Amino acid sequence: MTTPVQANHLRWVIRSQYFLYFGVLGIYLPFFNLYCHRIGFSGMQIGTLSALRSVVWVIFPLVWGVLADRYDCRRPIFIFCQFAAAALWGLYLFTTDFHLMLAISAGHGIFFAPVISFLEAFTMEVLGARKQAYGKIRAWGSISFILTVLVLGKIVDLFTIRIILYLVLAGALLQALAALPMPAGSRQKRMTPSLRPGVVARKEVTVFLASALLMLVSHGTYYGFFSIHLADLGFGGAFIGAAWALAASAEILVMIRSDVLFKRFSLKRVLLFSFAVAVLRWLMLAASDSAALILTAQVLHAVTYGAFHMASILYIDRLMPENAKTLGQALNNAVTYGLGMMVGFFANGFFYESIGAHVLFAVSALTALSGGLVFAAGCLRRGNGSLPAGS
């Protein structure tokens, strides 16, 4: 039995992993595609790089998740993948050739893909009966993201953007080392997880994954081309960093109150509300180049990412059986951040230079609306989706 002291130690280990993981993302997400743009890649090439990475995210979280649940080896896979991903990232330092960078992206993605889904599974297990407090731990990642983008925006303005390659490598190595004290997890007799319909293709699961897929497709313009769009409008690195930091700051406010949120509202209601706010957010970015409106839209990240992400993690954890918790989180990440982002990145890369970000954000709004309608229809088929608070 885990003592209170041990449990507190495990929570701090988990917090450190979120802090480092999202600190690295705070370098990668706002600035890697901008780096590719600065070294001469076209919108199509940037979209292809991002899409290929997302293809890997579809496949390998599931592969690693099945292995982890089947052989009860989540911790060694988690640590190995982090060291391997860091080593492969280092290869970016030696080339600016598109085809070589494409190969590096594929190799890096194979090992980086399962990290977040494994971390979510660790967190669910460590929290136990207190899963509604997930946001308070996850908020450490958002805090790190904010600090990173604020500082890095100014650094990019002062130095060459190539510095992000070295910073990502340093952060990835630090996270891999910090993963060594991760808990091994409870060892118990597990039935072999599978991808049989009875496990992952229940109607509730498929409806949720289909709608979540559309939600993440709608984020393709934002994650793939938001920084480039701002740069094209004449905004500098400091403003770009501040815009990303504002979004992360907004999501923290939701995350630290996650236990209150999910006690008052059901998971399904939070998800439906998130779809509606996403429609509004993308329409705002489609309609204006105003700095004030752009920053206002960033505040809505609290709902479109913060609330939606937390509800998704808790929802899929509730739907999956005990013997497939790692696989469940891997499946969620593969379909959403893998397949969803792949489609979003590739489509935006294909059309960005011909129709521009404003039209693409309008399409994003329609995509988010479609996702909300799919999820709402699924809820109605089950009696309006009325569940007890927190369900």
Highlighted features:
391 residues; mainly alpha; Growth Hormone, Chain: A; 16 helices; disordered C terminus
Write a structural description.
The protein is mainly alpha-helical. The chain has a single domain (4-183, 197-381), classed as Growth Hormone, Chain: A (Up-down Bundle). It is built from 16 helices and no strands. 80% of the residues lie in helices and 0% in strands. α2 crosses α16, α13 (267-287) runs antiparallel to α14 and α13 packs across α16 (325-381). The chain starts with a helix and ends in a 10-residue tail after the last helix. It has helices at 4-38, 43-71, 74-89, 98-112, 115-127, 134-158, 163-178, 197-200, 203-218, 220-232, 237-255, 258-264, 267-287, 291-299, 301-319, 325-381. Residues 188-195 and 384-391 have low confidence and may be disordered.
Instruction: Tell me the major beta sheet.
Output: none
At CATH level 2, the architecture is Up-down Bundle
> What does the overall shape look like?
globular
Mean pLDDT over the residues: 87
End-to-end gap: 28 Å
CATH superfamily: MFS general substrate transporter like domains
Going by helix content, strand content and strand pairing, the class is: mainly alpha
